[in-house]
Amino acid sequence: MAEAYPPSVSDGSSSDNSEAGNWLQGDQDDGDDFSEQETVQVISLMDDKVFDDALAMVTYCKEKYGLDFLGVRDRLGLDFYGCIKLINLIRQKVHDGKPVKSDEIKESDLEDDSLLKPVLEDDALIVCLDDLPPAGAAAPRAQETKQKETPAVDELLQKNAQLQEELEKLSQQFSNYRLAVQQTLDQRWGDDDKPESSKARAAAPAPTTNETDETKDGSKPDSPPEATYYFESYAHNDIHETMLKDTIRTNAYRDFIYNNKAIFAGKTVLDIGCGTGILSMFAAKAGAAKVLAVDNSAIIDKARENVFNNGLDNIITCIRGKIEDVTLPVPTVDIIVSEWMGYCLLYEAMLPSVLYARDKYLKPDTGLLVPSHTSMWIAPVADEEYVTDNMSFWRDVYGFDMKAMQEGTYTNCRIDHMPDAAVAGSAQCFRMLDLHTCTKEDLVFNEKWSSTYTSKDKLDGFLVWFDTFFCESRQEQVEKQLTWRQWMDIKGKESVAFTTGPFDKETHWRQGLMLIDYSKQPKGSGEKVKEGAKLEGEIAYAIPEGHHRGLNIKVTWGLEGETEDKKQSQMWLCH
């Protein structure tokens, strides 16, 4: 076969060693080592003074600043969550330079559930709430000296057991607190469609908490059944595991982001269709100042956990919803990163959502799209063994004709990774998309293509795939007929691009295989394409009526110089 699309070396993979974050520091499994854990450091509510216990801190605040934390707690009858809100209210007022007076704090000041989100990261006072005297009890003064006597061994063991029980209680209490925060934020920023919830969202400040889901949407609204199926398909782990294990895909994004930390440092990044949050976390690790992760499926809960557990919740804000429907907490972003590509590139119609966000949020002239360009390729296919195994098989199954089982096999675009030996002619790029300039209208088209047939076997169909390029500036261009490998050879070793084609390692996109149904073609047409023949024709992409996330691909082909009435054509549905 022709070497028009050169093979490449295989791509190695590497893992991302992200640090994990936990609500409670330390190994809770090693109970016997409890006495060796670090001393808790409680930061004052009113200044930056640090204390070894919560009681000493609240006593200090009362004596020096007149802030009676326990008095306010008892006066308002606050429970555990109420105390958390009170802590965050006081810390926020102190942070904003506003006065804090015990007798002026009212119950209505603590109604806002956003106060459940800690103002001070890893606030030890919240962990130590149970160390404070219960309501109604007189608060003893903090101990100013430590006992010098060495307690007996049995007393130490008893104390250790008590501390273990308290630690388990705190762990459970914090699990409940964590769940309460998640449920509250879900309701506040999009999971609750009740009218009063919408009113609260309208009056609330821009979202600053974690929400997630998948956004692969055009400007046309989904019909209810299609919307439900589409977004629910991204709610389960399996599809995300498949994508993450696609090292060609994931390594490309990681390598571009990590190799270009100067581009991401201090920038605001928008991740559309963030899924598990992997691209958002890459951007945060590369130095982005703020990352907005937008998604619209139930994977949101897992993404929120991933962001928090890796200690990146102070950088990444996860927002649930379609990008067309949500309101971002910033007017513009510096970078849009998205893995929007579908089968045959445009299946699932997510690119229109990226273009919508580009036009609405990306800074003009300087804003960067990641990736920046994609090219689409077509080549003829001849693979008699594949056709026999997948098509002819049904005509003789243990002596029975089961042609009914072939329904759709010639009308649907099959997604498969074909061996390079099956490619029966030179490949041609029929469409290049510059994501900084292309429009939604550019995604429906009819393009010419040509190829030199190199096989001695019958033409069985056509293969479609795409290449993806990551440019470092929006001014950089990619020549249409360059393969990803040729472009990287020109750019140098730090450049990043990948292919979904048959000449390289398989990706989860594989290729779109369109087999010719010769029973619907003119008689003898299967024999007219010979080795060395020049093929020419057109390929058209269109959106099926009533299924705007689907894709119709129509190919017209014939020998060079043939009139249009002599050429053949067939349409396949990608779904």
From TrEMBL:
Residues 374-560 form the Protein arginine N-methyltransferase domain. One of its GO terms (molecular function) is histone methyltransferase activity. It is found in: Cytoplasm, Cytosol. Keywords: Coiled coil, Cytoplasm, Metal-binding, Methyltransferase, S-adenosyl-L-methionine, Transferase, Zinc, Zinc-finger. One of its GO terms (biological process) is methylation. Residues 8-18 have a biased composition (Low complexity). The keyword tRNA processing does not apply. The keyword Zinc-finger applies. CDD domains: AdoMet_MTases. It catalyses: L-arginyl-[protein] + 2 S-adenosyl-L-methionine = N(omega),N(omega)-dimethyl-L-arginyl-[protein] + 2 S-adenosyl-L-homocysteine + 2 H(+); L-arginyl-[protein] + S-adenosyl-L-methionine = N(omega)-methyl-L-arginyl-[protein] + S-adenosyl-L-homocysteine + H(+). Residues 74-118 form the Protein arginine N-methyltransferase 3-like C2H2 zinc finger domain. Residues 1-32, 188-228 are annotated as: Disordered. Its EC number is 2.1.1.319. Residues 188-199 have a biased composition (Basic and acidic residues). Residues 269-364 form the Methyltransferase domain. Residues 153-187 form a coiled coil. Pfam families: ANM3_C2H2_Zf, Methyltransf_25, PRMT_C. GO terms for cellular component: cytosol; nucleus. PANTHER family: PROTEIN ARGININE N-METHYLTRANSFERASE, PROTEIN METHYLTRANSFERASE. This is type I protein arginine methyltransferase. It comes from Triangularia setosa. The lineage of its organism: Eukaryota, Fungi, Dikarya, Ascomycota, Pezizomycotina.
